[in-house]
Amino acid sequence: MTAETGDWTPAISPSGGPLYLQIVEAIEAGLRTGSLREGDRLPAQRALAERLGVDFTTVTRAYAEARRRNLIDAVTGRGSFVAPRRDPAAPPLDLSMNIPPAPKGVRLAELVARGVSEISARSNLDLLMSYHPGAGSSAERAGGAAWLRRTLGKVDPDRVLVASGAQSALAAILSVEARAGEAVLCEPLAYPGLLSAANQFDVAVVAAEADGDGMRPDALEAALRANPKARLLYLNPSIANPTAVTMPETRRREIAAVAVRGGLKILEDDPYSPLAADPPPAFATLAPTATFHVATVSKCLTPGLRIAFVVAPDAASRERLAEALRAISLMAPPLMSALVCGWIRDGVAADLLAGVRAEAEARQALARAALPAAVAHPSGLHLWLPLAGGWDRHGLAERARRQGLAVTPSDAFRVGGPAVEAVRVSLGAVPERARLATALETLSSILAGGPKALRDVV
Question: Do residue 177 and residue 57 come from a single domain?
């Protein structure tokens, strides 16, 4: 709970050295003695300047230095607050991990406890704690079909498989649809999990050029001609990771037509479309006999729920995929999948999704104000920040690290072609919205200072 410290007045002296540093040292002393505590709101800068009889710029400089030392956080429109105490060895504020933010007013621990209690009352908990080889029970597959309805329309539960997260599903699909020495085609910047899985199976990953609407149809045709062993096309078409691009319907139809003519299977990785108010049609509806559709709940509800629903293009593909999933992870955790499907059935998942979407939209508004040059979706979990003004991605990441921030350079996503001077900035991992605002403002200030500032301190 925030406390007001409007009467806090540091003791300063004309003979005590630079006045702004005396204010900073007074904040440090207040933290040591307990007269200032985490979350306390400091006096407004102008009010403190009048009280001390110093220039306004002296207090502004003091608060800026206090922020640099991680003593206070500033929130636009609200003021300056004593920051939580940070272990110098602790990791930086994480703008690198793409996870959904916790929605306001939702206590996940209570939801989980209540959900498990309801499962215990309705199900045989002993059975849920045993092995369940296969691709999901009939109830779980029905839950998956219900979850997919908003994206794919009515889905036959017999076409649905339940996997222990999207990564297991991607690996399983690669293992059955792309043999060693063959190739999977994708955009020049792609999800690192795909790249890692392809490397494990000795499958080449080949880039087909993209533009502002995603992969270009002519580039896909060229990639097919150059790579006759390509068997699989990987797409992340809605709020793409990392570029935040959503491929429009016309482009999707063009890409689907090229893929079908070329005999490609499509791997549609779709973690983010539930966050969008009105996403374009999924590839699984445009080319249903050619598409594996993977929809995880980890990226739109909470990362701890390692459950993904997969729709296969036909019965034979489904059986091969079920065998691959058994080989890779044996089963999705039954208690976890029962919890997810219970939430879907009871409406908890829809409410949680709405809360995550609202929080994501609020965080994107903060990001637009701080980083207007970024590419983003209004309800996405991340933004893509192309760099200009002489910045390079590694220099920015290093400068951000020195300021207590972590961002992801483009190298993590690069498939081929020249390096892209850009970073991905993720908005969900910092728990408090106010702390996120401070982190984004810090990143904006770093960019405004220019790359020379980094060279000066190295």
Answer: no
